[in-house]
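Late entry, written up from scratch paper. The run itself happened at the end of the previous shift, but nothing got recorded in the book at the time, so transcribing now.
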Amino acid sequence: MSQKIFLCSICNINSGTCNEDCKFCSQSVKFKADIERYKQKPIEQILEEARRLEALGALGFCLVTAQKGLDDKTLDFVCSVASTLKREVPRLRLIACNGTATVEQLQELKRAGVSAYNHNLETSREFYPQVCTTHPWDERYSTCENVNTVGLKLISGGIFGMGETMEDRTSMLHSLKALNPVSVPLNFYHHNPALPLNPNPLTIDESLNLITLARKILDKADRIMIAGGREITFKDRQHEIFEAGANSIVIGNYLTTAGRDAHTDLMMLKELGFEIAASPEDK
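Output as recorded:
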């Protein structure tokens, strides 16, 4: 029986409005990156994206907002979008990614039809102050604990290639293991000239080894997902991520950067002999 690959997709429903100073993120208003910025994406556009990506085989559909955390207005918007999608595209597993969140806010999302929450640790507790000073790493960890408390599926990962050490990478992976996420998105820093970080120094081989390390440490996770930076990091060796231990990818575009054409990804998976997962329970 061939391995099944879980396809996830991202919908940036609010873009480029964040006041935090995360040095890896073009959505921060502080760095004035040349990206599209808007408060709320129209529900018709979100629904069109959801239907198109579901038709391509995506099971996960992540509703992302660009701000430190949930406020009442954002919570109402995300819940409204989730309720509509749950009704119109019921096969999709809805994921919310809205920054720091309380138990009460997460319970509201759950009632609206959200089944998983994505909040990345990004890097180690020790290195985090080097890339963000406007909120602490511990706040991120607490949100992940809140996700587990309310019974939503936790999705949490991080970014490699921001100038962190190997010790930092291992530390982050062990912190993730303690949270027991069902899915671990591994991002590879995609440099934007407006951002203060240096370009990602990792080679393809180093990046593949990090996937293998993540799979080894996070042996209980259902999915190791390769997300942002996949195309620029692995180039014509993207097929090797599965040999390294990945079993999930993001198809379509990312938050502010274009992904590879989805049909190219689907052709790659077919040529490798993989099936596309048809339900979240598929392994």
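The chain is about 35% helix and 15% strand.
(Scratch paper discarded after transcription.)
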